[in-house]
Specification:
5-stranded mixed sheet; 9 helices; 22-stranded antiparallel barrel; mainly beta
């Protein structure tokens, strides 16, 4: 690798008119692999797929390339003396990084030569790659190189699609979107979704069904109920997540029905898959950890068929992600075995049309563990205490398949069609506790058998484009979504022998429970939505959205059906008094169907959620560091509560509310140093109920929580490649359940750390989690799940 030394801005300006590469504007140089020469067009998956908003007047070419680099995170290499005095045309519309670059260079006498995954050299057409490589080999010229590390922004993420279904800068959105990028997933050695919670303000882990590695969370006080994969609904109750196939995770805070239809008002979590890339990817990662965890993950990618003559994108690209894991647990008798396979291909049908096919299979078998009952005794026993039987088991199979078709009609308009089929099924047989006897130590249990299956089918068709009316620009999205989901189950219960809370004795016979009649529920729905991101001026942006959902729900056993129709609006305003600062305010709405009937046989109206949010977003240190501050209030109505006049029925007269403040900072203040910091103050409580007093806190939600994580990697000298990391997480006390708040989960601090060494072709890493072995507990509203004590996790990654 060839390295260039950093120079001050003043020094760069002094050399701008002489021979060499120096110039004060921030066209910059990534580390360039001269040994492999200049390659054909290569971009990361994010850069090649993403479209960015441009509204740039004609002007100086060097300055235009600088702005392009800022927006797209593409590293641009150029000679300042050659660009001096050159002009660039105006740039308008939603363009990919490559489209924008080619538009700027059109008729300029320069061409773009891609040098790696995210770097491009701008050279005179007549020179080509040989002259550029010769220049790069000159020590005199290397001393005149300006280096600005825009591509190395660490944990900073500037754009996301979950908030608008378009790749829009986060600073332009009047709602909070938090992103956990690949760098943070790697540095914290994330293996389970629950580990994400400490990196996002106002998010708490939600333990999966019987301990399954599912993707649900509490967001701003409310459980998500479901998660999303690449923008498609996933019934996460039975659907495990393996991070071998995850590129990054995006959290949209607050009601999201304007884009995603039915859902809880706290927000949505969207897992974005690793997709085909043109660049060659060959990575094998081996991991081991405390409690006999052994794991192997493989990531392969690249080009099957190169680009046609005159085109930039390869005809056929692929990606293969897989993982196998055999793991013990900090819980007595706990264990799991997982096999994950995920192939995908992208076919560039024409220069304007692409088709991506994605598949996934996940086999996840584990010891079914219902955790601990929400009673005071749970906080007095070891965190490994298991109240089931060693022969508890659950076997899960999950299949996912889909496509994404994109066609560009022009520089301004694009059509997207996507389909996802997500199927999960589980059979389980286990002993579970349900009550503590009056003696305070005997735990009553049931033997349970279950057969469960979920199906989600979703078709999305969207048209997006840009309309300019005078000085006002409209970025439009028109969409239709057709969906069907269904969850069916057979359950059997039978009494079995009890167990002692403090002195358990295992190997009791697990009786076979006969199944009750098949039951379940499902719905067919149609959603129509429209969105307009209006750029009123360089300082003012307005976001408007509206969706109508029509659905028919059915309950299997009763045969009861009911129809729902819901309107979900969203509106928000962003003011940017100067480029780094955004001030915003927004309002959004959600709905979620209620199942069942009232005592007079009528269907219930859906739950409704409403959020008002205001805040600011700040970009510092040349966009290497971002900060955000938000305040919000969410009101949830039509919540089902007991009907006091008929105890066997419920009514939809309940209400809940959450309000709070969130603050976050993330980025790379200086080269090699990455940091992520968050804090949330959340007041989530009952606002109306027939069985619970108003003001009662919602289960599992701390009033105060926060997280901090930082790493430093030496960039030169004998320590180059070595790095260290450390972090803290805190949560204040919180009720374990809603109805009887006799058990408060204690507040706790957790300290984590990491050591790593990274080279071009391999890396090694050791993470220490919960170093002081704090006793930390989570609750999903009914049961208590202890977290692990000290965990040591080591991994080695080889690139070949």
């Amino acid at each position: 690798m060839t390295h260039a030394r950093r120079r001050s801005s003043a020094s760069a300006q002094r050399s701008g008119s002489g021979s060499g590469w120096g110039r004060g504007w921030r066209v910059h140089l990534a580390l360039l692999a001269c040994s492999v020469g200049l390659q054909g067009p290569l971009l990361t998956a994010e850069q090649s797929d993403a479209r960015f908003h441009f509204s740039e007047p004609a002007g100086d070419l060097a300055e235009a390339l600088d702005r392009l680099s800022r927006v797209t995170k593409l590293d641009v290499i150029a000679r300042g003396d050659l660009l001096a005095g050159r002009r660039a045309p105006a740039l308008e519309g939603r363009l990919t990084a490559e489209e924008a670059l080619l538009a700027l260079l059109k008729d300029s006498g320069f061409e773009a030569r891609f040098t790696g995954d995210s770097a491009v050299a701008v050279v005179p057409v007549a020179e080509g790659s040989a002259r550029l490589l010769a220049d790069l080999g000159s020590s005199h010229l290397l001393n005149e190189v300006v280096v600005t590390d825009f591509a190395e922004r660490g944990y900073t993420v500037e754009t996301a699609s979950t908030g608008t279904r378009l790749e829009v800068p986060l600073r332009d959105l009047p709602q909070t979107v938090d992103v956990v990028p690949q760098d943070l997933l790697r540095d914290r050695a994330v293996l389970r979704p629950a580990e994400l919670a400490d990196s996002v303000a106002g998010v708490r882990a939600f333990t999966g069904y019987g301990g399954i590695s599912s993707g649900d969370f509490f967001i701003r006080g409310f459980g998500t109920d479901t998660s999303y994969r690449n923008g498609f609904r996933d019934f996460s109750f039975l659907s495990p997540v393996d991070f071998a196939g995850v590129e990054r995770v995006e959290f949209l805070k607050g009601p999201a029905s304007v884009l995603y239809g039915e859902g809880q008002p706290g927000g949505v979590v969207n897992y974005l898959s690793k997709k085909p890339v043109a660049a060659r990817v060959r990575e094998l990662t081996l991991t081991t950890a405390t409690d006999e965890v052994y794991r192997a993950a493989l990531d392969l990618g690249g080009t099957f068929i190169p680009a046609r003559q005159g085109e930039s994108e390869p005809v056929l690209m692929y990606r293969w992600n897989s993982a196998y894991e055999d793991a013990g647990s900090h819980r007595d008798y706990g264990a799991s075995e997982s096999l994950f396979l995920s192939p995908s291909v992208t076919w560039q049908v024409t220069a304007d049309t692409s088709l991506t096919l994605l598949g996934e299979y996940h086999r996840y078998d584990y010891v079914f563990d219902r955790g601990l009952l929400a009673v005071p005794q749970a906080l007095k026993v070891p965190v490994g205490r298991f109240l089931g039987e060693p022969e508890n088991e659950a076997k899960t199979d999950a299949w996912r398949a889909g496509y994404e078709l994109k066609h560009r009609f022009s520089d301004a308009w694009q059509f997207r069609s996507g389909f996802a089929m997500i199927l999960s099924e589980q059979t389980s047989r286990f002993a579970q506790p349900y009550e503590v006897a009056p003696d305070g130590h005997t735990v009553l249990r049931q033997a349970t058998a279950r057969r469960e299956r979920s199906q989600n089918y979703t078709l999305q068709n969207e048209l997006s484009g840009q309309v300019i009316t005078g000085a006002v620009r409209h970025d439009l999205l028109l969409g239709v979504e057709l969906a069907r989901y269904e969850f069916r189950y057979e359950i059997g219960f039978v009494e079995m022998s009890p167990i002692d809370f403090f002195h358990p004795a295992y190997d009791a016979p697990l009786p076979t429970a006969p199944y009750d009649p098949l039951d379940g529920y499902g719905a067919d729905s149609l959603g129509l939505y429209v969105q307009d991101l209006v750029t009123l001026s360089p300082q003012w942006k307005l976001l408007l959205g509206l969706r109508q959902d029509t659905s028919r729900s059915q309950e299997v056993l009763s045969g009861h059906t009911h129809d729902d129709r819901a309107w979900s609006p969203r509106a928000g305003l962003v003011y940017q008094p100067w480029e780094p600062l955004s001030l915003y305010a927004g309002w959004s709405h959600s709905f979620n169907p209620n199942f069942g009937v009232s005592r007079d046989g009528r269907s219930f109206a859906p739950e409704e959620g409403e959020q008002i949010e205001a805040g600011l977003k700040l970009e510092l240190l040349d966009q290497r560091l971002t900060a955000g501050l938000s305040v919000y209030e969410i009101t949830k109505t039509n919540v089902l509560v007991p009907d006091l006049s008929a105890p066997e029925f419920v009514s939809n007269t309940g209400g809940q509310k959450s309000r709070g403040l969130e603050a976050e900072v993330a980025g790379t203040p200086v080269r090699g140093w990455k940091v992520s910091l968050n804090y949330a103050c959340t007041d989530a409580f009952v606002s109306a109920d027939t069985a619970v007093a108003e003001g009662t806190r919602l289960a599992g939600i701390p009033r105060h929580e926060g997280g901090f994580w930082t790493t430093y990697e030496w960039q030169s000298g004998p320590w180059k490649g070595f790095g260290v990391g450390t972090g803290l997480a805190y949560a204040s006390d919180r009720p374990a359940t809603l109805a009887e708040q006799t058990v408060m989960l204690p507040s706790a601090w957790r300290w984590d750390a990491a050591l790593f060494y990274r080279r071009d072709s391999w890396s090694a890493q050791v993470n220490f989690k919960n170093i002081t072995s704090e006793r930390i507990y989570q609750s999903q509203g009914a049961l208590i799940y202890p977290e692990p004590l000290l965990q040591v996790q080591a991994s080695v990654t080889v690139k070949f």
